[in-house]
Amino acid sequence: MEPETKSEPNLKQAVPFFGVSNIEQSVSYYVDGLGFEITRKWIDDGKLRWCYLERGGAALMLQEFWKEGQHANLPREKLGVGVSICFFCEDALALYREFVSRGINAARPYVGNGMWVTSLSDPDGYRIDFESYTDAPEETLFSGD
């Protein structure tokens, strides 16, 4: 019988990978509006094609669809339909205030499933939720600024 050995978990992190229609617009939204930072990128023929964005312990990737040529892959369907990414955070209300101060149209926070939740949609319609645990009663609406 072989001795049992403990190993590190093989899976480390799930990172959303969004296909976007305009990478410059999306990067501006995530960097200038939501406070993410580009930590890796692929530039091809002088054009940003892909990037890896991080904020705290969270990450996501963006890549613009090819609109023409042999790699053309722009979908005919509306982007973002049915996609919702939830970022768990320490203070969703603080993020809501920050996003609104930067001109982001974030939904008024409410309590759902024991968490403050504020939602927004990126330029391609991907739904992004920021959530933090709370003891406030279910369905409470944020009444602050």
Main beta sheet = 4 strands, mixed
Number of strands: 8
CATH topology: 2,3-Dihydroxybiphenyl 1,2-Dioxygenase, domain 1
What is the fourth-level CATH superfamily?
2,3-Dihydroxybiphenyl 1,2-Dioxygenase, domain 1
Order of helices and strands: EHEEEEHEEE
Helices, by number, come to: 2
Q: What helical percentage do the residues reach?
A: 10-25%
Coarse morphology = globular
Distance between the termini: 64 Å
Name the average pLDDT.
Answer: 91
The CATH class turns out to be Alpha Beta
Strand content: 25-35%
Question: What radius of gyration results from the CA coordinates?
Answer: 18 Å
Q: In the CATH classification, which architecture applies?
A: Roll
How would the blueprint of this fold be written?
Layout: E1 17-20, H1 23-33, E2 37-44, E3 47-55, E4 58-64, E5 84-88, H2 92-101, E6 110-112, E7 115-121, E8 127-133
